[in-house]
């Protein structure tokens, strides 16, 4: 039986061991593949089930939409219920649904089961939130980066393996194999995953309502969620139509080649821990902006080099790298807001992330019969550009708050001689709590003594605004 482990609030050091961190990273890699096996197989599914490309593209759309629904309704339970039990039960459900998908007689059944696969496949966000809550603040970016490295490698290998298996054995074989992999993962996590201590004692409805409080009171959460959702939407738009592009002139490639394109993103996957360390050193906002610029550049290449294989290769490498940079930086910011609410913070962030992905896939699938590759590429370019505007606007607004606060510091310093590590006057805080019992819903404070983007700074949000 797994031993309960202490939370980050109960220890002065992160209780995560190196072994557990890598097991969680490997588990994220195996679990996330269920979302992406379909992408290099869409054309093959359409031919086998006699479905039009725009309808077959709905498999990817509904899988991502289901994932977003699972993030909203299931992942928050990680703050209320024991995470190990949730994860193990979801793995059993997934193995059953994946096997049923392999037996789909028509595209309607396939679409319905794809939605269920997405909803049940929230293993990775549960594990990432768990790891982030246990990590020390100065190690959180590295831990998130390590798990994200496994996550992205799982995404990339899922496409490559699915493309190969689909070309040799057919698309149904891939789903039978996926069902077996979930049973293997069940055994691995049952043996190694420790139990967790639930942090929320309210009802399920109160748990869901607290998500609204987070969105209203945490501007950093909103900014990071929107920006990452848009960049992932651009990413999904490209991957949803890439198999259709590569099977048309002048390429005429099968699903094997589509899957091999997934290996091009290994650059971004291997760089995830390094990206996390950069965020730990106080630069997640700049890191996210640079990542978004890289995504914009990649879609510029897709538009210019429409029928050039070299353009597709370079564009895919840059796009995967840029999306990974943006994702790790923004998720590190979000999970640093309050370790007591990591599952709910991750719910808001990842819901936005995969709703963005579903929107990108849907738009690209709709525009493909009309404007083809150019229309899908333009969708990706516009989404990435809007994400960059959101990031830059957020940075400007925080800088304005810092300047406004700096002008008031002299008077406050004269009135307060005891400042805490978060830049608050201890006397003011104690007085406020004496006047208003219970959790203090304080206004956001701009702090000038820490760099933007660091733990406890204006960029990290205000912990008093989170409903534990």
Describe the structure.
- There is one protein chain.
- By secondary structure, the protein is mainly α.
- The chain has 2 domains: about 20-195 and about 210-400, Up-down Bundle (Growth Hormone, Chain: A); about 400-465, no CATH class.
- Helix content is about 70%, strand content about 0%.
- It contains 19 helices and no strands.
- It has helices at about 20-35, 40-50, 55, 60-75, 85-100, 105-120, 125-135, 140-170, 170-190, 205-215, 220-245, 255-260, 265-270, 270-280, 285-305, 310-335, 340-405, 410-415, 425-435.
- The longest helix is centred in the C-terminal third of the chain and has 65 residues, at about 340-405.
And the CATH topology of the largest domain? Growth Hormone, Chain: A
Radius of gyration, whole Å: 22 Å
Number of strands: 0
Low-pLDDT sequence parts: 1-14, 417-422, 426-430, 432-468
The CATH homologous superfamily of the largest domain is called MFS general substrate transporter like domains
CATH architectural type of the largest domain: Up-down Bundle
Q: In total, how many domains does the architecture comprise?
A: 2
**Tally of alpha and pi helices:** 19
Globally, the shape reads: globular
Strand content: under 5%
Q: In CATH's first tier, which class of the largest domain applies?
A: Mainly Alpha
Tell me the structural class. mainly alpha
Kindly report how far apart the N and C termini lie. Answer: 28 Å
Q: State the order of secondary-structure elements, H for helix, E for strand.
A: HHHHHHHHHHHHHHHHHHH
Overall residue-averaged pLDDT value:
79
Report on the biggest sheet. none
- Into which percent range does the helicity of residues fall? over 70%
